[in-house]
Design a protein that fits this description.
CATH superfamily of the largest domain: Metal-dependent hydrolases
CATH architecture of the largest domain: Alpha-Beta Barrel
Number of domains: 2
Radius of gyration: 20 Å
Order of helices and strands: HHEHEEHEHEHEHEHEHH
Structural class: alpha/beta
């Protein structure tokens, strides 16, 4: 049986784990198998999407990159089709993109820029308009540890809300990738241990750096939204498995902690139902409730 990295570094922990597994196997061998007909039916999987956008178009025109209608009705249809019962919407740094979708279980992150608009963000956090903060690394030319962001981290600690970072590739060619390197999140995680941080997009394509930062720091979590654009069911299946499902699977396996990974899509850039399916193929079924629902409830302090 392979040991985890922590158990490899702590031999007694590995011995305890091995002993526990042996005892469990003995007990399982002595127990009578359950009657299949007596087992309760599995409840439908409830999904929380930790990364959507609600800057809806006035016209029912498809989103150019994904061909998905960027409307409130379109979001409702996609959520219903995918089994998504709640979501986290990300507003821009001017605060636009906010739409009251409480009835759909949607909360909002307030966009942060330098200089930090303390008054707007604090009013939003105090009122409940914002339930998290979002920093667009790469789109803004500052590192995560820049002193200019410190007021946002203080507000996050004060109101017990997470800070989400855009990391990895930028949708715009005007973005500067050096600022979006997920490895830079390590510094703020160490300096602000009482703040929860979420690495959006899993730092793609630098998923190894993102996974290590989440693995090392107890206050860092990761979501793998938008590893592709559009509808996964219309793309080459081998391509989707190689660049989406296998990437998520590698992250999940490396972190070795099912409580660290969240589901995110980046709707309307991504078709929700097909992305849920690609994501599910990456995660062992027994961990679906944690990855697709429970972790988001805990990290974003959502009501069940």
């Amino acid at each position: 049986m392979a040991l985890s990295r922590r158990e490899f570094l702590t031999p007694w922990a590995g011995a305890v784990r091995v002993g526990a597994v042996v005892m469990a196997a003995v007990a399982a061998g002595c127990a009578s198998p359950p009657d299949r007909d007596s087992l309760p039916a599995a409840a439908p999987l409830e999904i929380i999407d930790t990364h959507i956008h609600t800057r809806f178009s006035d016209q029912p025109q498809p989103q150019p990159a994904s061909a998905i209608p960027n409307t409130r009705e379109g979001l409702a249809r996609q959520m219903a089709a995918a089994g998504v019962t709640g979501a986290v919407a990300h507003t821009d740094t001017a605060g636009s993109g906010y739409v009251d979708l409480t009835a759909m279980g949607v909360i909002h992150c307030g966009g942060v820029r330098i200089p930090v608009d303390d008054a707007r963000l604090e009013e939003g956090l105090r009122s409940g308009r914002y339930r998290c903060l979002k920093i667009y690394l790469g789109y803004t030319y500052y590192y995560a540890a820049d002193p200019g962001y410190q007021p946002a981290y203080r507000l996050a600690a004060q109101y017990d809300v997470p800070v989400v970072f855009h990391t990895g590739d930028t949708y715009s060619s005007r973005g500067k990738l050096k600022y979006a390197d997920p490895l830079t999140i390590d510094e703020v995680a160490v300096d602000h241990p009482n703040v929860r941080f979420v690495i959006a997009h899993a730092g793609y394509p630098w998923i190894q750096s993102a996974a290590e930062v989440a693995y090392k720091n107890p206050n860092v979590f990761i979501e793998a939204s938008a590893l592709m654009l559009g509808n996964a069911s219309t793309k080459d299946a081998a391509w989707v498995d190689r660049y989406v499902t296998e990437s998520i699977s590698w992250i999940f396996g490396y972190i070795e902690d099912p409580s660290k990974l969240l589901f995110g899509s980046d709707w309307p850039l991504v078709d929700l139902p097909s992305y849920v399916e690609a994501y599910q193929r990456a995660i062992p079924r027994e961990h679906w409730p944690a990855v697709f629902h429970d972790n988001a409830v805990r990290v974003f302090r959502l009501a069940r």
